[in-house]
Amino acid sequence: MLHEGPMWVQREQKDVEGFITELFGELAREFIRKNKDRKFYLHLSFNAVHNFTHQLPADYLKEKGLKGFADLKPGENYWAWRKKLGYPANVEGRDYYLGQLHFLDHEIGLFMDELEEQGLAESTAIIFVSDNGGSLVTYANNGKLKGGKYTLFEGGTRVPMIVSYPPAFKTGEVSGSVASTLDIFPTICGLTGASLPSRLDGKDLAPVLSGAEHSLNRDFLFWDTQAEQAVRKGKWKLLVTKTTPNEKLQITPTPNGEFLYNLESDPGEATNLVVQQQVVSQELKRALLKWKAGL
């Protein structure tokens, strides 16, 4: 996304101009250089490939032969404008998405290079994760997974997590354990020796990442967006949909009701087993209600 005007940089408001993915990357590298000789924590939240994906540098659009898309004009109806930009109306929509991904990948590469140049790559714990699955209306592709952002289908909640910390974790390993972003905090606390609060939902991922344990010992994971609720235990997932989430931005049918999926054999959530597996369904529903009551 293009940015021109005030932006908060740490505790100071500065006038900046440029492509915000590059601005975030530049600030992150500057932070690394300033803090290379002491312990630090850096939370780098790129907003690519978030909307508005059409906002790309002019030279990139020219290089790729893309005509571009005009920003919202004063007085223009937002949803009418947005509809022309979103899937499937814009023939360049997927190209814009890939453009954002290109710049994101490039900045992550520069960040890793900076750690290498400062001699920090082998001693820094790096956790890479997305906050949600790809948004189909902005031309993301979630492969075989159903749905995307805004829903509690796997396309909306299942994302890659990549962790690197050579001193403690095995390299080149792929784990099938079901982790959550809730687990990042206790994992960092474990690595740094920080104490944990008495009540915590997340779990330390270190035993799995180090190879000491094969899988994470977890009973349930819960989600609640008001429009939808979900609970997962092992291979089973119960989804309760009350109303279509973000209807104007959702292109996947989301019928109301209760749905039980075996994610091991059906990661695309094509077959509802709520009737055939009533014992499992009721167990998950009781757990969901108990969780809700305890909030």
TrEMBL record:
Pfam families: Sulfatase. Residues 20-194 form the Sulfatase N-terminal domain. It comes from the Bacteria. Gene3D superfamilies: 3.30.1120.10, Alkaline Phosphatase, subunit A (3.40.720.10). One of its GO terms (molecular function) is arylsulfatase activity. InterPro entries: Alkaline_phosphatase_core_sf, Sulfatase, Sulfatase_N. Belongs to the sulfatase family. This is Choline-sulfatase. It comes from Pontiella desulfatans. The lineage of its organism: Bacteria, Pseudomonadati, Kiritimatiellota, Kiritimatiellia, Kiritimatiellales.
